[in-house]
């Protein structure tokens, strides 16, 4: 088997050959770049749109492409041209360095050239088959599916040209690679170039590299990256299975070599303690030291979280069932009714002539699908919260996280009031505030001579954020009042946790909103400020209860503790 150092030195030889023949390499790169750009401008862009959107057009879906940046098309063509130029340069550089590679023993011997040529032809053929399958079958089907669900929700498919072309080309390459990667893995193992253990042990590195590539070559939405990453990872593990089937004799040789090396290492080591034993002793010492530190530190929050997690794990099937049912129902409702109903309600208070000029569009291929998945998962997570509290109630009471006086009916009635206030605030925002805001913004846009066109992701995010924001602000004073008056939580605890609340709000705002710092600040700042206002209101309304709790704790010698 050729050692790894030989390949590294061979790579340096290829770079040296490229440097010595710089003119040839540059000419090859420019030929690949210029020819690709001209081919894209004169033929390929139009052909790709015609072929991939034909099935959607046949079903009556009006799918168009657009550009939102003046240099978007030029930069897209340049990017594809650079990639093509690099692909042309690589075989040229390898050919120029063939002499050095032969001397280092990393070139194929003459006797194996026919077999290598056949293998390369097979790889190229399988790659072409994968690309053709993706281009002719899969991508048109995906585009029809994406267009159908968008049009059904009243969203106009208006894909960015860069995202559209990137998706078509990248997905075609993914299918091409997926078609021939198992063959490549079997060939390299059977020829002794790479061992099976190398492929098996480096799967994490492959996943990481594939994730980086998918992030670099696709649009920034996670759904597109998952669509690219998924086939690569799946075909890698399929290749591992193919190696075990078609190169089993090589696996037997590797196992025998590993056994011999282990026996020799044991003989050399003799009766001395192994490195693993020594490391284990050191780890035990470190653990003892850390345990001493933990004994000093207050680990109450960690203990409570661990106990709650244990309760959740013991009821994981029930919680998972609730999550899946709610998420599935939410997904179906949003796809077929929800988004369209939200859009209609938002423009319901506009004059007809203004409402006809307001539309929502989908710029990214999977923007609408990812939006629905995001809010379906959020609905499922919110639905599980009451069940988590119910199943963990004994733990929370025993750990003094919740307490207080009153019957279960007392707490249920207070919770119902808080939820009712939240729903009232959310309804006021959804039916009153949001239509007015959208109407004012749209009218300002139209009067400026522009089209009031909103991306579906930003539009639904705006509706959701304002609705939840007003709902939380409506119930926050009442929630604090009931928590303190019922002696479930001390006023000092709520006061000391406002920084934690602010951090949580910013994190949640970053997760549920667009990746825009300004939007995140607009969401988080009002909630954080209103938290302080609610504290002031609660301090006035619950003055007697707060004083009584302080006196009781002072008599028990707990005045300085926060729990």
Automatic annotation (TrEMBL):
GO terms for biological process: intracellular protein transmembrane transport; protein transport by the Tat complex. It comes from the Archaea. Its main location: membrane. It is found in: Membrane. One of its GO terms (cellular component) is TAT protein transport complex. The keyword Heme does not apply. Pfam families: TatC. The chain crosses the membrane at residues 21-44, 74-97, 118-143, 163-183, 203-220, 226-247, 319-336, 368-391, 411-431, 462-484, 496-512, 518-542. Residues 262-281 are annotated as: Disordered. Keywords: Membrane, Transmembrane, Transmembrane helix. It is a multi-pass membrane protein. GO terms for molecular function: proton motive force dependent protein transmembrane transporter activity. This is Twin-arginine translocase subunit TatC.
């Amino acid at each position: 088997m050729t050692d790894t150092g030989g390949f590294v030195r061979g790579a340096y030889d290829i770079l040296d050959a490229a440097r010595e023949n710089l003119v040839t390499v540059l000419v090859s790169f420019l030929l690949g770049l210029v020819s690709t750009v001209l081919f894209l401008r004169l033929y390929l862009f139009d052909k790709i749109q015609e072929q991939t959107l034909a099935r959607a057009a046949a079903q009556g879906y009006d799918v168009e492409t657009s550009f939102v940046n003046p240099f978007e098309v030029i930069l897209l063509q340049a990017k594809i041209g650079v990639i093509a130029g690099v692909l042309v340069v690589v075989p040229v550089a390898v050919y120029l360095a063939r002499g050095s590679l032969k001397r280092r023993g990393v070139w194929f011997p003459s006797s194996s050239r026919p077999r290598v040529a056949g293998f390369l032809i097979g790889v190229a053929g399988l790659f072409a088959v994968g690309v053709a399958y993706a281009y002719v079958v899969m991508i048109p089907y995906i585009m029809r599916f994406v267009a159908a669900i968008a049009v059904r929700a009243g969203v106009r498919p208006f894909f960015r040209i860069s995202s559209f072309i990137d998706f078509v080309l990248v997905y075609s390459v993914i299918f091409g690679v997926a078609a021939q990667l198992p063959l490549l893995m079997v060939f390299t193992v059977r020829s002794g170039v790479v061992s099976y253990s190398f492929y098996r042990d480096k799967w994490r590195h492959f996943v990481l590299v594939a994730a980086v590539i998918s992030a670099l070559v696709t649009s920034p939405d996670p759904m597109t990256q998952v669509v690219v990453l998924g086939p690569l990872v799946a075909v890698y593990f399929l290749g591992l299975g193919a190696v075990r089937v078609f190169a089993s004799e090589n696996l037997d040789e590797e196992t025998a070599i590993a056994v011999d090396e282990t026996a020799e290492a044991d003989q050399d080591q003799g009766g001395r303690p192994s490195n693993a034993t020594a490391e284990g002793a050191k780890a035990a010492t470190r653990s003892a030291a850390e345990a001493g530190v933990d004994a000093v530190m207050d680990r109450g929050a960690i203990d409570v979280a661990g106990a709650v997690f244990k309760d959740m794990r013991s009821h994981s099937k029930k919680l998972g069932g609730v999550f899946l049912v709610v998420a599935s129902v939410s997904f179906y409702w949003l796809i077929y009714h929800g988004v369209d109903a939200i859009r209609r309600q938002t423009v319901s208070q506009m004059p007809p002539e203004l409402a006809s000029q307001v539309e929502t569009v989908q710029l990214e291929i999977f923007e609408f699908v990812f939006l629905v998945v995001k809010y379906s998962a959020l609905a499922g997570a919110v639905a599980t919260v009451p069940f988590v509290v119910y199943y963990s109630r004994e733990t929370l009471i025993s750990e003094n996280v919740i307490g207080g006086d009153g019957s279960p009916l007392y707490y249920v009635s207070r919770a119902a009031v808080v939820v009712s206030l939240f729903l009232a605030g959310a309804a006021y925002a959804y039916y009153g505030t949001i239509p007015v805001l959208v109407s004012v913004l749209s009218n300002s846009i139209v009067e400026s001579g522009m089209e009031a066109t909103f991306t579906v992701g930003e539009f639904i995010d705006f509706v959701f954020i304002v609705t939840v924001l007003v709902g939380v602000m409506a119930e926050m004073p009442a929630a604090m009042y009931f928590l303190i008056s019922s002696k479930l939580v001390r006023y000092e605890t709520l006061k000391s946790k406002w920084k934690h609340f602010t951090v949580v709000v910013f994190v949640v705002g970053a997760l549920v909103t667009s990746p825009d710092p300004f939007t995140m600040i607009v969401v988080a700042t009002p909630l954080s400020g209103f938290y302080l206002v609610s504290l002031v209101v609660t301090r006035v309304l619950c003055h007697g209860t707060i004083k009584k709790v302080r006196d009781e704790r002072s008599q028990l010698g707990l005045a300085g503790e926060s729990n």
